[in-house]
Task: structure prediction
Amino acid sequence: MNKLSLPPAGRILCAVSGGADSMCLLHLLHSRGRDVVAAHFEHGIRGEESLGDAAFVENWCRERGIPCVTGHGDVPGYAREKGMSLEEAARVLRYRFLEETVEEQGCDYIATAHNGDDNVETVLLNLTRGAGALGLSGIPPCRGKIIRPLLGVSRDEIEEYLKKNAVPHVEDSSNQSDDYSRNRIRHRVTPVLRELNPGLNEAVGRTARLLAQDEDCLGGLAQDFIHRFFDGESLPVKELLALHGAVASRVIRRLCRGSLSMEQVEAVLSLARSRELKYLDLPGQRLHCEQGRLYFREQAKLHLPDRQLIPGKWVQVPELGLELLAEYGSEGGEVNGLFKTYRFKCENIDSAVFCGGRKPGDSLRPQGRGCTKSLKSLFLEAGYTQQQRDRTLVLRDGKGVLAVLGLGVDERVKAGPDEPVLCIKIRETGQEKNVCAGILSES
Result:
């Protein structure tokens, strides 16, 4: 293991799943006399198999006097709650556990067992997603307290080490499934590439390092520009647009929250180039240009107040650029395909009808589904972001939710043919059409 990269001293928290890679790393650290603590996170995905992995790691460490900390999480539940994939949810909870444990155990580093094969798979996966230099730089050897000592070691070398030193490990059954994107790349793509170039790990690693150098250079130029021109809330448009696009895009990404798509970055530059008074909504921020400066300001949380719908009168919802008209009639039927018209059975409407934002505890019994769902569950099913949820209009009466715009009508007020109905018509006013990242005129 000549390619092992370790800091000269310090207490190390070693992330140990029980698999081949992490058991190799833990054995290496322990056999070299390093001050090491094992940390195992049980994801709650594979039932008894997952609990067995935790017991395996704990027993192995106990036999050798290695301190071991085990954490447990409900990854499937967290993934549903946050609208994430299982892979991403597992990563978030695992690193949260490691960051908490490294402080509790007084460790200087968190060592993960990412190897050279993992790096190849990461670069290829990011390539399929259209990543730039940062994504194609692969897995960094270190980030903050996180170190990756095996990044220069191949999976074959790891298996050889385990065999030579009689180090046991567990096999995660999910690694054999092609349900995960990374596994499909591992099983179907890299074997073909290794036929073309047996030195694939070294080749991809070299490319990743070169791109990381480029990213570091361009990122440094962007940070220098921010240091010179950003006053805490705005930048001069003329100087921003004079930058090379590669630097300008990095300036924008550093000043905006979250991860921006290429389209969102271009929308910011388009806003900067425009001479009209416009603004742009991004998650948590509203950007606008004024007197030659581009402002990055926190976006106020949208509040949709309750407004009573009075039959025969258009009611404005200026926050969404909509207006609604309630009319009595005798037309049965379903909401149309564009969700622009809703019909409710008059007999089952309780008191006045209001439109407004979602409220804690809201639920809906969607027509034809035979079950009652919380709005939170419906939003998760639809993949709505927090901002989309805040901007979703709800129709309700004294008994509860009648309809959620774009998501459905409650079974309670389903109207049959020729039954008296309250018809709600909805149209755009043109005042506010943006939901996420469109450019709108204020004039």
User: Anything to note?
Assistant: Residues 302 and 369 are 31 Å apart (CA to CA). The radius of gyration is 28 Å.
